[in-house]
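Subgroup meeting minutes
Present: P.N., E.W., G.H.
Scribe: E.W.

1. P.N. recapped why we're keeping a running log of single-chain structure predictions: easier to compare across weeks, and new members can see raw inputs and outputs side by side.
2. G.H. added today's entry (767 aa).
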Amino acid sequence: MRIRYLRTRLIVTSVCLLSLVLGAVFFAVYTSTDFSAERQAQRQLEVGSNVFRNLLEARARELTNATQILVADFGFRQAVATGDLATIRSALLNQASRIGADQALFFDAQGDLRISSATMPGSDTAQVESLQAFSEQALIAMIDHRPYLLVEAVVHAPVPVGQVAMAFSLDAALAREMQKLTGLEIRFVSSRDKEVMSTFSTTPYAQQDMSLQQGTQRLEREGYLTTAITLLDQAPYSVVAQMASPLSDALASFDDLKRELLIITLIALLASSFLAVRLSGGLARPVTLLAEAAKRIGRGDYTHKVTLARNDELGLLAESIDAMRIGIAERESLIAHNALHDPLTGLANVGVMRERLNSSIVSGQSGVLAQCNLVTAELMVKARGQSFMDTLVRQSVACLGGQLPADSLLAWQPGVGFLLLLERRDLDEAVVVIDAMLAQLGEKMQVEDIKLRSQWMAGVVEWPLQGRDAGELLRQVSIALGDAAPGPERIAVYQAQRDQAYQRRIRLARDLRYAPEYKELAVVFQPKLDLASGEVRQVEALMRWTHSELGPITPDEFIVLAEQTGSIGMLTQWMMAAVASQLRNWIDRGIHLQVAMNISARDLDDPQFPQRIEHLLRAQQISPEYLSMEVTESAVMINPERSLNSLRVLRDLGIALAVDDYGTGYSSLATLKSLPVQDLKIDKSFVLQLAEGSDDAVIVKSTIELAHNMGLKVIAEGIESIDSLNWLKERHCDVAQGYFISRPLAAAALEQWLEDTRGTFGVVESA
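Output recorded in log:
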């Protein structure tokens, strides 16, 4: 269940924590008392064990002294020497009775038991079944299956003639006596072959089946801490003395402490709970006041000061909230200003311009909207930096102060430039104002450390003639600015037909990305004629795009758009897959043609491009010799180092390379020499109209000779007449390509063309 109020949560939390802490303390102390009681019982048990052993040893010494007195008596020695068994028995009984021994035994010189005080004269003597030393003066013995403490003394007359032994029974009487002296419960257990024979104990637990292992043990059920001392361990007999210290006696001494601890704990809990209630109330009230202040600030009310008459953390929090109130108010004011103004120039921004333009259109007014931009803005940023450009813009705004009509609106949008709104003016009047504005902006001015004249251009659109929507007018004026040029044509008026071309480019750039998905792309192949053999061994793969609504789009139109918008890489991948699929089909059918395809600068700039080509060929199991790549001079020159690296990797894979459109770029012969290419393709602009002695003929002839001297094959494209074909053949051009030979054909049409022209141009080899 969720507790709503902070004060209640504080009280509950505090009381719970206090209860937990006090409970933990009570439990720890309570547990420690039990542990202390057990340790006390343990110490008592250890002391009692030592006392028990010492008492047995003292009893043994008493018996030893009494026995020594008996064997030293002259009459007893004489009776032993003469073999007077009656006298010996009488003396033994008297001495045993005098010292409290349970038995007196006499052994002859051979060690045989002759007399036992526990048996009648003439009956069998007692049987000593087992003996084990207990101390230097005493032994533990089993006599007639009962345990005894035994001492002995030798009778000399003057030589050893016998031995006297006094036995003290380990029975209940001894146990009770030891209990009184040690304060422990005593238990004697005799067993034979691990089966209990007799038990003498001072406690009721004597009949319980308990372990007699050495060391301290805890008997949970009986409430005792016990230890066992082995007195006799001589197979098959064993005698164990077990001592027990009752835990109840030790725990009783701590009962008063536990009761007092419980009372103290309860009193502490009640007092702590009372203090928790007081403290929670003292905390909750100021927190509630601060929460109400925060709500006011959240509603936008920044007029009430937040204060608390406290010097603690809550007082500091109140001061911080009040400082936040002031800061938010200032920032909101600044945000409101920045929402309507450009921070760099202080002019209105495009939002204000859009709102003013909509208001003017709704009110039925007419007017002109102009967009002005700096011609060399990009170059200035690159040469001098953005801060220089910002300074130039601010100074340009300053120079326009007071130069524009009072009812005009001048705005600035970064990346766009100045926007000028002229209401209730026709186009001619507006152009005069705009031209004066451009002239003023072009005046020489000191910007940082240099003096310069800047060139500005403007695009102009008139409403409501060209539109009645602010967004549409802003788009149209941007198109008009694109038609302006430095010099006399620095002001351009929006023209609808230019807008149509612009809209077409925008649509093509957008739809080109989806052309592969909509299956609007196709591949055609243009044959390449080997002039020496008259055979067609190569074809060039060309892409065609048929838009679903606009119809066929020329490569010159969509390839440029693809390079500008970054879609060229996608088109190249599609083309690679289509060419590889067609090659695999031709190879399977025994048609062996090398296919050339064009690649762009963006393809060469991609370090992964050669690997993708390799993976594609490997996936289709196509030898690299079936593929040729054509790249223009200009593409290589954009990033020569990276382009050359990609070309070398392609060449190492075994793919043939050619320089396309040679003669239209700006590469040097040194650059051409460094290219890892095999073919040089002369641009069609030099081949279309070849005539002996013309400039084009001189260039083509020189190029053929130059290429051959460099070890390159020459491909001439743009062959549109038999004269051009013969002229090239006479100059030893290697390969020809053009409409005169064949237009680009679909795969099926190409196969039919090869069959139909067999013997005319060449023969396609079949496997």
